[in-house]
Structure formats: C-alpha cells, structure tokens
From TrEMBL:
This is Aminoglycoside phosphotransferase domain-containing protein. The lineage of its organism: Eukaryota, Fungi, Dikarya, Ascomycota, Pezizomycotina. PANTHER family: AMINOGLYCOSIDE PHOSPHOTRANSFERASE DOMAIN-CONTAINING PROTEIN, AMINOGLYCOSIDE PHOSPHOTRANSFERASE-RELATED-RELATED. It holds the Pfam family APH. It comes from Penicillium cinerascens. Transmembrane segments: none annotated. InterPro entries: AGP_Transferase, Aminoglycoside_PTrfase, Kinase-like_dom_sf. Residues 201-253 form the Aminoglycoside phosphotransferase domain.
Length: 287
C-alpha cells in the first residue's frame, strides 16, 4: 500500500506541501535548519516544516493551545498531518495502530536567532529584558493548572527524561506519578536483592506540588530572540501537565550549574526547587 498524506488540520487558505516535495527540499542542505532527532526544513518564505523521529501532532496541538490561552510567543501552526504507513525498514518513526507514520507540522518561521547562538552578542540590558519576559511566560504557564499528570487531553506521559515510564499514565495524582518513578528506578537499577525501596520512596514522598502545564524542555536553543525580545519558544513536544518543579529541573538537565546560559534560565524561574532538582538528578542517573 502506497503511503498516504492525511491533513489533520490546516489554517484557512493554507495548502500543505506534500511530504514527498518536503523531503526533496530537505535534500538541499541550505533548506535544512538545525535539529537533532527530527528535521526542520524551510519550504518557502517564512514557512518551515518539522517532521521525523518523535514528531507528533501533540506538539502542534500544544502550540495552538498556548497561542489561544496565553501571550507566550510560539510558532504559528499552519497545518499538520500524517504520512504513511511505512514498514519499519523504511521509516524508523512512531507507531500508530501497529504501523509507522511520520507527522508533519507546518509553521511560521520565528524571527531572530536561538538564545544559545545569540548569547555572546547579547548585551546585559538585552539579557535582562529577555529574562523578565521569560519570567512572565513561566508565570503564565503556572496559571494553567491540571488535575492529572500526563500529556494534553489526558494523554500518557511523553517526557523522554524518564524512558522507563514513557507512554504510561496519565496519573491521577503526584503520588501515583512518584510511585511509577520509584518503581522504574528500582527495576532499572537491578539491585540484586538489595532492598532500597524504602529509601527511594522516601525521596519521592513529597506529593504536595501543584500540577500545571509544563513546557518540558526550556533551554537556550529553544528560545528565539531578536533585538532583546523573545520572539518564540520552540519545541513543545514534551509538554503536558506535570508537578510544578518539573520545568525547573528539566531546564538544568544535562547542563547543570556550570553552564552560564543554564544558570541564566534557572534565574528566570519565579520559584526555584533546589531539593526537587537534586532528587531529579538522582533519578535520572539511572532512568
């Protein structure tokens, strides 16, 4: 069966370019934008397509929710759809009903550069202005409270920081989420009969955090800036409802306090979660 392109949603007046044409454009290096686990291709003036490994319609839906309910700048979604099915040998992508599909997200290009690239040329006043804007946006996210832990529309946990619990949930409470984390840690560690359950579960005994919408990957490379202004926050693939400390811990994940830009992001948070970050580091050494 030949792969089929199914448009799941498109803005009025916008016609998505067929994936075959997108992939042909992607063969030209000049059209490709920086990305690791997927491809982002500029297909025309001011228009880009994100597709590939781990791309899903959830990311498009997350951006549309942000655009509708907050003032947080996100790339304007123009359309999204799926292309497939493919056999595993042809496409190493997400599974949908036992078959493999690619998801294509068409969006407006954000103006400027990512903060990690613009960092050295940013003046102190520009950095201060960017910091204030990010704090405002983080406060807006905290207003979007949830009653479960998981992805949008009562979906499963998608955060790659804990692959052992990926595609599980949603969890009705932080207590259930913490139990899943501690069980995954103990199983993954493989303690050969050593009983560490009480210790690990005590580390995760704080179940009193508020649950709110979380970006899931706030890092300098995902923050677009221009003339001292934040023009867009990118990469909403891991977003969902998580405990209030989650974005703080994720912002430092992989960089830590030795990175000037990571510390800059850390200081934009309206509240810091030092103990929760240490517990998160303990868990992710294994998970």
């Amino acid at each position: 069966m030949s792969p089929k392109f199914t448009v799941l949603w498109a803005a009025s007046g916008f016609t998505p370019t067929h994936p075959d044409a997108v992939q042909e454009m992607a063969s030209e290096k000049a059209n490709r934008l920086p990305a690791k686990t997927h491809r982002v291709v500029q297909i025309g003036p001011g228009v880009a397509v994100k597709y590939g490994l781990l791309v899903s319609k959830k990311e498009a839906e997350n951006m549309m929710i942000m655009a509708k309910n907050t003032s947080i700048p996100v790339p304007k979604v123009l359309a999204y759809g799926t292309f497939g099915p493919f056999p595993r040998s042809a496409r190493d992508n997400v599974i949908c009903d036992g078959q493999f599909y690619e998801t294509y997200i068409y969006m407006a290009l954000a103006k400027g550069q990512s903060l990690d690239k613009a960092w050295d040329s940013c003046t102190r006043p520009s950095r201060e202005a960017i910091s204030k804007q990010l704090t405002t946006y983080l406060l807006e996210l905290r207003k979007l409270e949830g009653s479960y832990i998981g992805s949008l529309n009562s979906g499963a946990v998608l955060d790659m920081a804990s692959p052992s619990i990926k595609s599980k949930g949603p969890f009705k409470s932080e207590g259930q989420f913490n139990t899943a984390l501690s069980n995954a840690y103990i199983t993954t560690l493989g303690t050969s009969g050593l009983d560490i359950r009480t210790f690990v579960r005590e580390l995760l005994s704080n179940n009193d955090h508020k649950i709110h919408f979380t970006h899931g990957n706030i890092k300098p490379q995902h923050i677009m800036v221009h003339n001292g202004r934040v023009t867009a926050i990118l990469d909403w693939a891991l977003s969902g409802f998580y405990p209030e400390y989650w974005d703080f811990a994720k912002a430092l994940d992989g960089d830590g306090l030795g990175d000037e830009r990571a510390v800059f992001i850390m200081n934009t948070f309206p509240q810091q979660y030092a103990l929760e970050y240490l517990v998160y580091c303990f868990l992710t050494e294994v998970l």
